[in-house]
Amino acid sequence: MAILGLQGIRGGVGTTSVTAALGWALQLLGESVLMIDASPDNMLRLSFNVEFTHSAGWARALLDNKEWRDAGQRYTSNLDLLPFGQLAAGERENIYALHDRLVPIAAALQALKSQGHYRWILLDLPADFTPLTRELLDQCDHTLTVVKPDTNCHVRLHQQALPSGTNLLINDLRIGSQLQDDLYQVWLQSQPRLLSTVIHRDEAMVECLAAKQPLGEYRSDSLAAEEILTLANWCLLHCAGSDRIAHDRNIEHEL
């Protein structure tokens, strides 16, 4: 199994929507997936028909000295969700002070990995540098850094530290934008970890959150959904590694 972390190079690049869409695509391919919201914004749940007023989550449980596993939710037979939970205003303002109470989730990730119940654990990581985020990044087997082809992200690629070995995923590439096309061509030449798969601007990606569904469930025929499915197949090929090969060989042997 693999723990895959998705993190925007900054806020507002669509990381949460991409994470939700990728989880849906992986389960369509027959993979068992656990999606964990690691962001205090607690937005991932809204793509999976969880009520806006639902405040439970793994972080809320840890802070209230409750069992974090009870916050899990099942969406399909192959897809489970673990929201972050709602923080009070004072807790959000002092997120650094909560580190010691929230960091047990890192050990929980390794326990989940060793149990092998899920083929994938996807982490929706915030675009920050808090100790908790760094701790969770250390638990990831692979990471994807989500970027938009704009000047803000271009500057950050040159002055901001990225997770070691991360791959860059372009989201919201707009056909007909000269600036975006120019930046994309520059990145093709200068960013060796840039994925060949890109996600184009698609209104379905914007609309699916309003429908409280992941992209592929809301509009499986959309361009972005097809590109996310391509990304999921890339993950199977490049992120599952020898564990996937051994798993497939065992199946063939049993047959």
How would you explain this protein's 3D organization?
By secondary structure, the protein is of the alpha/beta class. Helices cover 45% and strands 16% of the residues. Strand 7, helix 8 and strand 8 form a beta-alpha-beta unit. The longest helix has 16 residues. The two termini are 22 Å apart.
* Proportion of residues in extended strands: 15-25%
Order of helices and strands: EHEHEEHHHEHEHEHEHHHH
* Overall pLDDT confidence: 93
Q: Report the span from N to C terminus.
A: 22 Å
Number of strands: 8
**Class by alpha and beta content:** alpha/beta
Rg, please? 18 Å
Please count the helical segments. 12
| Approximate shape | globular
Low-confidence stretches: 244-255
The strand line-up of the biggest sheet is 3-4-2-5-1-6-7-8
Fraction of residues in helix: 40-55%
The main sheet comes to:
8 strands, mixed
Write the layout of secondary structure elements.
Elements: E1 2-8, H1 15-28, E2 33-37, H2 58-63, E3 73-76, E4 79-82, H3 89-93, H4 99-102, H5 104-115, E5 120-125, H6 131-139, E6 142-147, H7 151-159, E7 167-173, H8 178-190, E8 199-200, H9 203-210, H10 215-218, H11 223-238, H12 241-254
Parallel strand pairs: 1-5, 1-6, 2-4, 2-5, 6-7, 7-8
Antiparallel strand pairs: 3-4
Helix pairs in contact: 1-11
